[in-house]
Design a protein that fits this description.
Helix content: 55-70%
Distance between the termini: 104 Å
Mean pLDDT: 84
Structural class: alpha+beta
Radius of gyration: 26 Å
CATH superfamily of the largest domain: Ribosomal protein L10, N-terminal RNA-binding domain
CATH topology of the largest domain: Alpha-Beta Plaits
Number of strands: 5
Low-confidence stretches: none
Largest sheet: 5 strands, antiparallel
CATH class of the largest domain: Alpha Beta
């Protein structure tokens, strides 16, 4: 069944609204993936507050032109793309997409948008490699703790030398 012009205009308006309100947008291709797997991804993303929507590439390009977003890098891509949008918890959503991609090699990241900037596939893959929030906090605390630990070790070393010197004097008398 063909989609009417009015319906296409409605879809473009919805996509524009989504692109404007989202903090980050991931563009994903899903050739040959089963609907059950996509529903698993949708459920995982919904728990994190993200939305998953499939849009024809041509309609996405029209919406991007209306918002002055550079969608020219999508020119080589054919068919539909899935928009994964979120307003918060970007790293958690990135991790959910990365985990899903590990399990399902058929899903392919095409790119994304962060504000008015286009993120290439390489940028998105780099986001996949960022540790979780908890791991980053642990690294920060470890970095902050290291100088204090070093100071304690230095001060403890002087006290230890002093005690060993006193013991040596005691043995010699």
């Amino acid at each position: 069944m063909a989609v009417t012009r009015a319906k296409k205009e409605e879809i473009v308006a919805e996509v524009k609204k989504t692109l404007q309100s989202a903090g980050i947008v991931f563009l994903v291709d899903f050739p040959g993936i089963k609907a059950a797997k996509i529903n698993e991804l949708r459920a995982a993303l919904k728990k994190l507050g993200a939305k998953y929507r499939v849009v024809k590439k041509a309609l996405l390009e029209i919406a991007c032109k209306g918002l002055e977003l550079d969608a020219s890098r999508l020119a080589g891509h054919k068919g539909s793309v899935a928009l994964i949008t979120c307003e918060a918890h970007e790293l958690e959503i990135t991790k959910a997409i990365a985990n899903f991609k590990k399990e399902n090699d058929t899903i392919e990241v095409v790119g994304g948008f962060y504000g008015k900037y286009f993120l290439s596939k390489d940028h998105i893959v780099a986001l996949f490699r960022i540790p979780s929030r908890e791991a980053l906090i642990a690294q920060l605390l470890s970095t902050l703790h290291a100088p204090m630990q070093g100071l304690v070790s230095v001060l403890n070393g002087n006290l230890k030398k002093f005690v060993l010197t006193l013991e040596a004097i005691k043995r010699s008398k």
